[in-house]
Amino acid sequence: MRMQAHLRTSGFSMVELLVTVILAGIVFASMVPLFISAEVKSSGDQMRNIALNLAQDRIEKVRQLDFDQITLANLQSSSFANSQFGTSWTSYSGGGATKTYSIAYTVNNVAANGTNPAYVVVKVVVGWAGKPTPNYTPALQIVITRDYAGPQIISLTVGPTNVNGVVNSTPVTLTARVGAADVASTAKVVFSIFTQSGSVVTTITQTSGSSGVYTASWDASSAANGIYAFQAQAYTSTSSAGNAWSRRATLQLNTAPPVLPTVHIGAGYHFIGFWWTASTATDLAYYQVWRSTTSGAETLYYDDMLSPGFNDLNVTVGTTYYYQVRAVDTDGNVGPLSAQLSAAPGTTSGAVPGAPGSFNVTRSNDTAVITWTASSGSPAGYHLFRDGAILAMPDVTARTYTDTIGYATAHTYYLVASSAYGYSPATSTKQVNAATPPTYTMTVTVNKSTPATSVNVVQIDSYLTQPYDWSTKSATSSSSAVWTGLPYGTYKVTAAWSGTIQSQTITFNSAKTVPFTF
Amino acid sequence: MRGLDIRQLKQSQGITLVELMVSMTIMTVVMAMLVVTWVSLQSSEAVTVRSDQTRSDVRIAMARMCREIRDVQSQAAGQPLDGEAPIIYASANEIDFTTSFNDPGANKAGQILLTRYYYVCNSANNDPTTWCIYRQRDTNQNGVFDTGDRVDQIADDIVNGITPSTGSPTPMFQYSYLDGSGTLQTGTTPPDPATIQTVQIRIMADVNPGHEPTYMDLVSTVEPLNMRQM
User: Fold this and answer.
1) Of A88, A443, B103, B220, which is the most exposed, with the fewest CB atoms less than 10 Å away?
2) Which chain A residues are closer than 8 Å to B186 by Cβ?
3) Digit-coded pLDDT (tens) for A187-196
């Protein structure tokens, strides 16, 4: 240890300090390229990202083209398909500056052979000029196969519709358009209509179109309201099928509100009874009763009522009640409120009427005929119940009622009489059994001799779980189509002659001839 | 300890005032350089993080919109928009459609819900953090967008609304669609969304917010797969 040397030390000299500062400066300066390099790499990453998305953009745009439009010349054209393609694209890079990316395409067509359809391989490479050097320019490739041998449907519309898109009138017009490249090769377009559960409602073939537009007319007058699927598919003359284009629409033909004819009211001992002539709407769903203790201020009191009558027991003696009734159909159409009627519950008690006498129910073809004799005690009305629910309030003096029930289901009935003093006991229950429906012969005649008309008969009774197809037959003007042994019911008969479709819905309760004229 | 000479100690005179001042000045210069460099690094790191975050947000927004719009599907029977095309509304800065993509954490597995992406850019408001892309889901399932629905911000600093100028903004969505005669058209307002063939999405983001504008300009296109089956 040489202490003397240490003691001679007199701190850093100026030169040493300067050397240190210069060295530190060199070290800092050497780090600058690192920052620059990081920035350049970051910028390059961003450009590659933009280029990758641009390549994806072009690949997806190729997918919207018809197969025959996918050519190198088209893709390189800056004006093709509303300028969606071309060989360059300019991005904004901020501060008013732009950056141009170049796009190169490779299109390789492979023709169809015996087992494989034709396909095309499209490759898109995106690059840019200048730095950063495009060492890793994105390239994407797609293979597009000619999927269909037949003509392409490119749109299908269903109308007429209201503002909510609901088909609201008949006939329903279906309009299909085939692609411009397929107009010449299209021989026919087949329209199919399905229920929401997938059952075929009808099929319409249209062989004549105008500039690729084919239309079909569907008589929906006998179709139930609801959601339907409509499909169109085009064929060549050699029956090569193209794509099937489908769409759904809601059918709601009936917009007329159900109307109530007349409402009657009467007061009984601690109750108010009223009944009305049933709405004649065939699609009636239920009734609503509105009530108030103030005239003109009725509010909804009883909803979803199925019977055409109501006895209000929830009343206070001494209070006058005001009522209105209206009907609602299965499409939700609401009828007008009936005229306001008022009554106060009666306070006078007396003998209730006796049970109706000789109550009897018999089947007569597709109807049940109900008869009885008058009750004792001057009944003001009768209440007929079917299967536990009130069916009707039959006329007091006629004392007979005919109920159309078809053949498929058994029904039970009983009857109650009423007066201002209350209800009679119910009659005993009577039943009519299901019966085998009678069968008849249906003859379908047409007025065309050639080509033969195709006739299809479908039973559409609501008790069937699904329409029953009684087969398709041919008919000419000299040879009718005949079905024997068809059971009583409701039928839809459809005839197709030379691309034109007609249909009729008939109630089949005797031997019938159904004529079609084209 | 023979080497320790008391005379030598007496000759030692310490540091002169001039030496002290010079060394302090140099130290100050060196320290100043270090502090400036450190602050600069800190600032640079903050900008880089913000920039990376914006780049990442935009990439994710683009990927998510592409995926979701490609897989649009019509609502099922019984839902409010049953029977409608999968794309309900289409304009330059908004697209409304129905899809079964779920919300994170929401118990709506398999539900096909009305959804929309929309871009809001109030150019009068000079705050780019309010120039955003939003995604809204009809989570209360009533068929319309209202205050009961969930809204998520997907990305901010989106400058479509001011590029190339506020008077001539760049649309976020552009559509290829078939017109009434079946001819392919492109535009930002297709008359019938059911005829849309492809949707072009363009997102421009300022990845250097608050400093010299540096834009990331992404463009991509998707072909919705279920447009023909309604």
Assistant:
1) A88
2) 81-84
3) 999 999 998 7
CB contact under 8 A, A154 and B178: yes
The amino acid sitting at A511 is A
How many CB pairs below 8 A link A and B? 136
Query: For an interface test with B, which of A22, A34, A248 has the most B Cβ atoms less than 10 Å from its Cβ?
Result: A248
Peptide bond into A33 cis (omega under 30): no
Report the CATH architecture of A357-432. Answer: Sandwich (2.60)
Domain ranges of chain A: 14-145, 153-251, 263-343, 357-432, 439-516
Secondary structure (DSSP) of B24-74: HHHHHHHHHHHHHHHHHHHHHHHHHHHHHHHHHHHHHHHHHHHHHHHT--P
Which has the closest alpha carbon to A487: A441, A455, A419, A420?
A: A441
Q: Is B105 part of a structural domain of the chain?
A: yes
Average pLDDT value for chain B: 83
Backbone angles phi, psi at B185, to 5 degrees: -125, 160
Q: Which of A11, A83, A155 sits opposite B15 (nearest CB)?
A: A11
Strand A512-516 relative to strand A439-446, pairing = parallel
Contact status of A21 with chain B (Cβ, < 8 Å) = yes
**Considering the entire predicted model, what is its pTM?**
0.53
Say whether B59 and A49 touch across the interface (CB within 8 A).
yes
Mutate to test the interface with B, among A16, A46, A195 (most CBs of B within 10 A): A46
Q: How many CA atoms lie within 13 A of A431 on its CB side?
A: 5
Domain extent for B192: 46-222
